[in-house]
Predict the structure of Pre-mRNA branch site protein p14.
Amino acid sequence: MIIGASASRRTMRLSPEVSRILYLRNLPYKISAEELYDIFGKYGSVRQIRKGNGPRTNGTAFVVYDDIYDAKNALDHLSGFNVAGRYLVVLYYNPTRLNKRSNLDKEQQELDRVKAALNMNQ
């Protein structure tokens, strides 16, 4: 009995960091959502693409796949892919990593406040 490719990949164990949501960095500022759909749609059904448009988010985007294996395949093939002279950085979206940074900033602010209250500033 021959197992199909899709059945065999479903039994493959994925690392806990793998997600259906990919975070993209180093995008050309003028790339359109349609161009991103063309690039990332080759690796599976894309549910949504959100492109950053503010000063801090320009050049970034989120790509949400319907299937986690399609997201993994896209990351494997498109990380480092050259688009308009820029090499894509493709990562799995990890909200805990973003929250950790936010929590560190809050903890530093609290520490600075306590130091100021106790006149411990150097």
